[in-house]
Specification:
- The chain is of the alpha/beta class and 295 residues long.
- The protein has eleven helices and nine strands.
- The chain has two domains: 148 residues, Glucose-6-phosphate isomerase like protein, domain 1 (Rossmann fold, 3-Layer(aba) Sandwich); 109 residues, Rossmann fold (3-Layer(aba) Sandwich), CATH 3.40.50.10490.
- α2 runs antiparallel to α8, α3 packs across α7 and α8 runs parallel beside α11.
Length: 295
């Protein structure tokens, strides 16, 4: 069993530990009316996007997100949230350093003694969710479970739902027959769709895309074919699903689990299954390292 699979399978246990931090997360992330910018790179950027939508939908105030390499510093924010599993991500460090005085710096990380943590006014430490694998799985999902709880959502059933989903048959029966993967989301699940596509690219070196659900008809579906998988994460569109199956021959997954985060876990499992079918080790993704540290 690879490290990546072990960490994917550990998520129910790790989510339960994350939920113990709900009071701290609420105090740091859910201050009503606070204008907040969430920053990250790669997986953390997609998590920032989901986080921003969830926070605004909870009525807590203006919440934007951006890639840490393209921060929206000209705007006024009361707080900036930097997300970095390793705490070493150069672009997040630079963005935090560039903030003007008076802006509260919050960091979510898996490493307490890290450059990002040392720059922070407040740290949300998820060291129990840190990973050996280069490919992130349990760290981002644990943060999103915790954020949802902090924003007042009842997510206490999610760990048990994840256990059941991981024990059940995967919704994609023959991943080795697929050569093209598309993930569609809406609202906060757009970030999950981007993250699911990234997992396939990282772990399996496969052609993967992500789009907002309703935008998929505006051009991208032109490349759908019998080797395509189109997965609607947390959303359903029966008309689009029927059209894809009838006209392109693509495989469609919709409503595979009770919660979008559970579907992301299943997408992670799919990524390692596709890697195995291609003779690849997901623990050693091509050209990637655990953290991007620039000179």
């Amino acid at each position: 069993m690879t490290i990546t699979i072990r960490e994917i399978d550990s998520q129910p246990h790790v989510w339960r530990r994350a939920l113990d931090l709900t009071p701290q997360a609420r105090a740091l992330l859910a201050r009503p009316g606070e204008r907040l910018l969430a920053l990250g790179c790669g997986t953390s950027a997609f998590v920032a996007g989901s986080f921003a939508t969830l926070r605004e939908n909870a009525g807590l105030g203006t919440t934007d997100w951006a890639y840490a390499s393209e921060p929206r510093t000209p705007r006024h924010y009361d707080a900036v949230l930097g997300i970095s599993r390793s705490g070493d991500t150069t672009e997040v460090i630079d963005a935090l350093r560039a903030l003007p005085a008076g802006v509260r710096r919050i960091v979510v990380t898996g490493v307490a003694d890290s450059p990002c943590a040392r720059l922070a006014d407040d740290v949300l430490l998820l060291d129990f969710a840190d990973e050996e694998s280069v490919v992130q799985t349990r760290f981002p999902t644990s943060f999103l479970v915790l954020a949802r709880a902090a924003f007042g959502e009842d997510v206490t059933a999610l760990p048990a739902q994840a256990e059941a989903a991981l024990a059940a048959a995967h919704p994609v029966a023959e991943p080795g027959l697929l050569d093209h993967f598309v993930y569609l989301g809406r609202g906060w699940t757009n970030g999950l769709a981007m993250e699911a596509a990234l997992k396939i690219r990282e772990a399996a070196q496969a052609w993967a895309e992500s789009y907002p659900l309703l935008d998929y008809r505006h051009g991208p579906m032109a490349v759908a074919h019998p080797g395509s998988l189109v997965w609607m994460l947390g959303v359903e569109d029966p008309e689009l699903a029927d059209q894809l199956v009838a006209t392109t021959g693509a495989t469609v997954v919709s409503g595979a689990a009770a919660d979008p985060l559970i579907e992301l876990v299943l997408a992670q499992r799919l990524a390692v299954s596709v890697a195995a079918a291609r003779g690849l080790n997901p623990d050693r993704p091509r050209y990637l390292t655990r953290a991007v540290v620039l000179n």
